[in-house]
Specification:
Blueprint: H1 3-19, E1 21-30, H2 44-50, E2 56-60, H3 71-83, E3 87-91, H4 99-102, H5 104-113, H6 116-124, E4 131-132, H7 143-155, E5 159-160, E6 165-166, H8 169-182, H9 185-214, E7 220-225, H10 228-243, E8 246-248, H11 251-254, H12 274-277, H13 282-289, H14 296-307
Parallel strand pairs: 1-2, 1-7, 1-8, 2-3, 3-4, 4-5, 6-7
Helix pairs in contact: 2-10, 3-6, 8-9, 8-14, 9-10
Bound molecules: zinc ion (ZN).
Zinc ion (ZN) binds near residues 28, 29, 92 and 96.
């Protein structure tokens, strides 16, 4: 073959490899003990994930184990999660406190309390327990509070876990469960379909920002929750993402992208995407936030139903 053709072909191939989009799935508020008894002591989300062969990192609130009377069953549920080969366990505090409200002493005690069981289980299944995620992604109210906790985390060999994409699945889940309880499966299915459509819009939106900022697709980290909605929909969502060219990687792999070694520029308490936190220009951040996919209607409906 002509050398020029070989060079062109390898360039095209190279570009194709770089154009490959990758995402790590992370699931918060594990284990969901509230819906566990009504689902016959079976995690529908876990069963769904078993069939998907996609790596996931789960962020555990051990306090959830004591939320119902079924403590031994709930403890077993936690073990079921941790023992899966495709699951990486992480700490999400014991009781899901907001750091900026709780303050350093209470919050760090809650971090330590939050890994007593999961650390033993992680060791049993030969896994590290190194990832930590802040509840509400509230990293502290100012730079001083943020610096203090980052020091604590590194002294305790924890890595603060970022995310780049989330789609308020907890809002959609509230409506989804509400409609199911009403026996309105049509509205429940519509809500699930809208969750998938909006999530795909969020993926495109954040990919377009990183394309603009870095000239390429970065390794994304998607944040969602252990809930009925994802038990229903995560397989469909993953299928659509595959069709968009995404492949699914571990959190370890995602974090190798150099974007994650950038300093965070935002020092407030609000839990938005790291894509925004890396921006030094506050006006640019705010103007991009206003262009996010619109879920105002869903959010208003959620607020109205919650008042009832
Ligand atoms: Zn959470």
């Amino acid at each position: 073959m002509n050398r020029l053709i070989v060079t062109i072909l390898s360039l095209i191939l190279c570009q194709h490899i770089h154009a490959q989009k990758q995402v790590a799935i992370t699931i918060d508020d594990i284990p969901n003990t509230t819906i566990y008894p009504e689902n016959g002591f079976r995690s529908r989300l876990l069963s769904k994930l078993d069939s998907l062969s996609v790596p996931v990192t789960v962020f555990i609130n051990e306090g959830l184990i004591y939320n119902t009377e079924f403590v031994p069953e709930n403890t077993d549920l936690l073990e079921q999660w941790i023992k899966r080969d495709y699951v990486t366990p992480g700490n999400h505090t014991f009781s899901h406190l907001r750091y900026s409200d709780a303050g350093f002493d209470v919050f760090t005690a809650d971090i330590s309390k939050g890994d007593s069981l999961s650390r033993k289980l992680a060791e049993k299944y030969h896994k590290p327990l190194k990832y930590f995620r802040f509840p509400y992604n509230d990293l502290g109210k100012d730079s001083l509070q943020q610096m203090k906790i980052q020091t604590f985390l590194s002294e305790n060999s924890y890595i603060s876990t970022p995310f780049t994409i989330e789609s308020s699945d907890w809002v959609f889940n509230f409506l989804y469960e509400y409609y199911l309880k009403q026996g309105d499966t049509t509205e429940a299915q519509k809500t699930a379909a809208l969750y998938i459509a909006k999530t795909l819009e969020y993926f495109d939106f954040f990919d377009s920002i990183t394309q603009m900022q870095y000239g390429r697709s970065v390794n994304q980290i998607y944040l969602c929750h252990d809930n009925s909605l994802n038990a229903c929909c995560i397989g469909i969502l993953i299928q659509h993402l595959k069709e968009k060219g995404y492949s699914f990687i571990s959190l370890d792999e995602a974090m190798k992208d150099e974007v994650y070694s950038q300093p965070e520029q935002y020092t407030g308490k609000w839990g938005f995407s790291w894509v925004y936190r890396w921006m030094s220009d506050k006006n640019e951040r705010q103007s991009l936030m206003q262009k996010e996919p619109d879920i105002t209607d869903i959010y208003e409906l959620y607020q109205n139903l919650r008042k009832k």
